[in-house]
Design brief:
The longest helix has 23 residues. It contains four helices and six strands; from the N terminus they run E-E-E-H-H-E-E-H-H-E. The protein is α+β, with helices and mostly antiparallel strands. The protein folds into two domains: 35 residues, no CATH class; 92 residues, K homology (KH) domain (GMP Synthetase, Chain A, domain 3, 2-Layer Sandwich), CATH 3.30.300. The strands form two sheets. Strands 1-2-3 form a three-stranded antiparallel beta sheet. Strands 4-5-6 form a three-stranded mixed beta sheet, covered by helices on one side. It starts with a strand and ends with a strand.
Amino acid sequence: MDRHANAVWRGNLKEGSGAIDLQSGAFKAQPYSFKTRFEDESGRSGTNPEELIAAAHAGCFAMQLSHFLAENGTPAEKLDARAVVTLVPGTGITGSALTLVGNVPGIDEARFRELADKAKQGCPVSKALGAIKITLDARLT
């Protein structure tokens, strides 16, 4: 199974800009630039590669955990996963911090954390991000 995205960039690094399209059509001509990547902390002026990695990581992790919870006989009612990907200019991407709040009837906190950690280790995006530090803060509601 292959998935794709397309990025078109025009100009140099600091004054140039680009647009990203996703195969699914969820993004069409989504803008990105030096500003959206390195200067705009609000994230409102466009996307950037790190934001897209964070979305992929949070989504993959939540799906993997939902599978483990169902196998455990304790399917989740809701998993709210967030990934914060850190980019250090001049160094690169240094980490992804996963935060999870789960509504999972019938499971105790220790088993929930055990399965969440297993999902953190096992989801395909975590595996792809093996060169960086991945942390997890998981709790039940």
